[in-house]
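Why predict the complex rather than its parts? Because the way molecules touch one another can change local conformation, and only a joint prediction can capture that. The input here totals 536 residues.
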Amino acid sequence: MDTPDTTVPVYPRVLPVGESAFTVEFGARVDPALNRRVHALDALLRRQDRPGILELVPSYRALLVLYDPGRVTAPELRAQLLALAQGGDLEAPAPEGRLIELPVRYGGEAGPDLDAVAAHTGLTPEEVIRLHSRPVYTVAMLGFAPGFAYLLGLPERLSTPRLSTPRLQVAPGSVGIAGSQTGVYALNTPGGWQIIGRTDLRLFDPVADPPFRIEAGDCVRFVAHSADA
Amino acid sequence: MLEVLAAGALTTVQDRGRPGWARYGVPPSGPVDAAAFAAANRLVGNSPAAAGLEITLAGPTLRALDDCLIAVCGAAFDLWVGRLPVPGWHSVYVRAGSVIRFGALRRGARACLAVSGGIQVPLFLGSRSTYLRGGFGGKEGRALQAGDRLLLGAGALRSPIEAAGVRWPSKRRPPYCSSPTLRVVLGPQDDHLSPAAVSRLLNADYVLSPAWDRMGARLMGPPLDFRKATGIVSDGVVTGSIQVVPDGQPIIALVDRQTTGGYPKVATVIGADLPLLAQCPPGATVRLAPVGIAEAQAALLAFRGGL
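Output of the joint prediction:
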């Protein structure tokens, strides 16, 4: 039985995550407007390069701020983060992130689950490709595995549940769908997303600067290449 | 050079870790017991950035091909250099050709071995730490195997024999014990648990499950019930984050954790107490005790001062 929740959160809020981090939460939902504010605060803090801030980890609706308690006090940083999160600066129209175009071979060996997604959605494989390669997606966050990009903006029509049994190996560059999300694998990892295609662009190169081609906040568009080209 | 004659259960090359890449999904890695690792490096005269070995549950057998100093800190293993038993938390002189052999594990779970000059493997994203799931860092992104040869930095050859026999004082070691109480800062998502569940979390004895690795320590205890969703919209995780999975059991995130997670993070083990958790093997009992941020930060700064 659910106990009624008497503590309705007021957003944005800044909560401690242990003694060396705060999370700045803008809400509790997957929502492009909240995600834009996360990226705006992330960009602002990166520009300001404040003393004591060690690392910033943006995600869908929250920004994790790791800091050195030897260099900035918790109450001071918490107040600064709250003021920035509440401030008008984050409301300005977000500067468009970089647009990255990823050429994708859909279907076949590169996209073994394209037919399953088509069957689940009642579309033809060609319609799945057309719908998936139409939007400009936003990279909500990187996580799960190095360089794995979670994208916002999948057309509702393409929602498909995860594989019931995850694969032990998913090739780098694979493009997948899980529920109402779509994403791109940068490294060879296990994974349970429905793989509909693959880009041959190298998304992770340890000796490049930066080593990861895609950043949180970037925009991504998939450009369909014929699977047998 | 160090030659691996037998690898042990899980022996990996680690340095201070790989901070700064979490926004790209890369965990910090590094030693689970950062205190033992730092002490070992200090004892052999290395910079804090030097790479050494993390040794897990069953230790390796190594042959030194150069004269060098070693130190083993953290878990208490029986340890021999040649035929001579040698103590942990000491700098020990090793002549070229000698065999360093780990025997029975007496206490703890993970030892750190530092060797003068540090272990030279290529830097990967600025660090020599092994990240097993990513398959990068350390020795070819994997745990050591028999037959591996590890290059040592130039400092190894200059190690003075006089620097041997230095002991790391007990009062500067973490207060290890077999059933530690780990201090935690509550939140950020403790509101997903019922108040009774939060109280249970802070009063129960938890046993570390056999699902135990560098990613996380899974705890077994009275299941915790949720008053909100069992999932959250994924957000950032730190080392020490206590996530409660839908079956009501907590998992404490360690250094090879994922950088983001979708389970409620109900509390965080404070940095100063992570070495105590690092030395708990599967089957050990832990308890969790809440503290405020101010106390947690004072403990962290004191802990750093001791290194």
